[in-house]
Amino acid sequence: MELVTPDVGLLFWMLVSFTLLLIILKKFAWKPILNSLREREESISEALSTAEKARAEMEKLKTDNEAIIREARIEKEKILKEAREIKIQIVDKAKQEASQEANKIIEVARLNIRQEKATALDEIKKQVAELSVDIAEKILREKLSADTEQKKLIEKYLEDIRLN
Amino acid sequence: MKQRLKITSVFFLATLTIIVLSSAMLSHNTESKEKKESASAQEQTPRSFDAREMIMDHIMDSYEWHLFTYKDYHCSIPLPVILYSKDKGLHIFFSSKLHHGESNYKGFKISTEEKYHGKIVEELPDGSIVKPLDLSITKVTVAFLFTMLFMIWLFVSIANAYKQHRNEAPHGMQNLMEPLILFIRDEVARPSIGEKYERYMPYLLTLFFFIFFNNIFGLIPIPPGGANVMGNVAIPTVMALFTFALVILSSTKYFWIDIFNTPGVPWWLKFPIPLLPLIEFLSLFIKHIVLVIRLFANIIAGHIVALGFFALIFIFGEMSLLGGYGISFVSVPFTVFLTLLEILVAFIQAYVFTLLSALYVGLAMEKPHH
Predict the structure, then answer these.
(1) pLDDT tens across A107-164, in order?
(2) In sequence order, what E strands does chain A have?
(3) Residue A3: its chain B contacts at CB < 8 A?
(4) Rounded to a whole number, what is the distance in Å from the CA of A50 to chain B's nearest CA?
(5) Where are the strands (E) in A33-138, listed by range?
(6) What is the ipTM of this complex?
């Protein structure tokens, strides 16, 4: 029976000291320990979620980059195509302009030639008239001096004219 | 590292065994001799070794910390005796004044009678015997006070380590205790109590480690270890009272409704004879009493069985010297095995007491039924 009868002194000391132990450990041990355990867990889970977020971000960036690169490539091709078209246009236009210019120059030249020709013809006509007058004068003058000599002279002059 | 651990544990076990053996041999052998003399002096029948008495001596509380007895010299650490009697008032003295129960001091003596066996009683002038209010610092008190100081030292230094190394991996003692703390938090408190578990964590942790360390120290046979703390009914009683108080303080309306008007049972179990409410109400007390008995009986049983194996050595040794040595080859391995088992029991009982405390508190926080 003494085995199962709690002793009053023991009950008293146990009650007092266990209460004190509880208070002391709660204040100086369990609170800081549990707090730092929780803190550490939170920081770990935070770090994990941050890493996960960063990974997702990276993934997104990667897909974004790929899309950007794809778009850029398309853009480049478009620009190149346009440039090629513009080149052709420019060349065509230049050619057209050049031919127009050439035509204009030719036209002007033709006009000039025609004018020159006309003036030249006028000149020739004038000279021919003068020459004719000269020749006629010379012939007339020869005819007046001797018949044969005159004939020879006429022929000689004619020869000259022909040579001219 | 693993190898080193193995070697140290083997070394530890070996020293443990040697200490168990030597201390047991020393005290028991000499005690038995002494008892032989006194017994033969009193009665003519020579009763030398009393296993029951030896075991009871070891598992009961005492006013002194007996180390060994050599021939007629008792070596023990005297502990303070604090008494309050109606006649003589307060008395504080060392237990050495009582001379191991052999002499009377100011009318106080250690009773050898059946009624107050082993307790200090007061002899009144008229010859009648009464028990004064006894608040002595006994062996068990010293043992659990030592455990408490150890716990304060251990956990406060661990707490400081946590404060100093914030958000770092634990090391040293932290590493050893953290799994246990997390175990109590994640496997005991959280599933049993629910979301409000944090309020009860300090109590549950204190409870668990107090039981655990007392049990472990109880297995070390040199002072301040070796006392039978959890095997003394007063200690689990106080802890169960704490749990009971927590249960009452955290109980909700629905918990009491469940007890006095249990839903979902036939009405004739509640009226006119309130059979079920009575059973439920009594079970509220019984489960806490069972909490005490479970812990106390488990620990005391372990001590008794281990001591029983030692007693075998002396019982056989009395028959023949060879028999004593012979049986020691059986008893010692069995005691080593039992000590290992007791280490397991130390943990399991601490766990069970804590788990059940948490469960009872969790049940008291009953939520409305839907």
Answers:
(1) 999 999 999 989 988 988 888 888 888 888 887 776 666 667 767 777 887 888 776 6
(2) none
(3) 59-60, 233, 300
(4) 16
(5) none
(6) 0.80
Q: H or E stretch including B84?
A: strand B80-85
DSSP H helical ranges for chain B: 2-42, 51-59, 139-164, 173-183, 190-193, 201-219, 234-250, 253-260, 275-319, 321-364
Determine the angle formed by the axes of helices B321-364 and B2-42, rounding to 10 degrees.
110
In angstroms, the CA B87 to CA B124 distance is: 9
Nearest to B155 among A6, A13, A29 (CB): A29
In tens, the pLDDT along A25-83 reads 999 999 999 998 888 889 899 999 999 999 999 999 999 999 999 999 999 999 999 99
- What are the tens digits of pLDDT across the range B31-65? 444 444 444 444 444 457 788 888 888 888 888 88
Helices vs strands, H then E, count in chain A: 3, 0
| Separation between Cα atoms, residue B314 and residue B306, nearest integer Å | 13
Q: Rounded CA gap, B45 and B35, in Å?
A: 12
pLDDT of residue B30: 40
Bond into B224 cis (ω within 30):
yes
Measured N-to-C along each axis, helices A8-25 and B234-250 cross at an angle, to the nearest 10 degrees, of: 50
Q: Do B135 and A9 touch (CB under 8 A)?
A: yes
Separation in Å, CA of B282 to nearest CA in chain A: 20
Q: Is B178 on the interface with A (CB under 8 A)?
A: yes
For the entire predicted model, the pTM comes to 0.72
Q: Chain A residue with minimal CA distance to B141?
A: A10
Euclidean distance between CA atoms A75 and A67, whole angstroms: 12
Main-chain dihedrals φ then ψ at residue B304, nearest 5 degrees: -65, -45
CA distance B195 to chain A (A): 15
**DSSP character at residue B98:** G
B residues 300-319 closer than 8 Å to A (CB):
300
Interchain pair B155, A34: CB under 8 A:
no
- Rounded distance, CA B112 to CA B118, Å? 6
Quick one: pLDDT at residue A164?
A: 66
Domain boundaries, chain B: 80-136, 139-364
For testing the chain A interface, which of B134, B142, B168, B233 should be mutated: the one with the most A CBs within 10 Å?
B233
**Closest partner residue to B237 among A11, A28, A30, by Cβ?**
A11
Q: Is the pLDDT of residue B104 over 50?
A: yes
The first and second tokens of residue B6, run together, are 């193995």
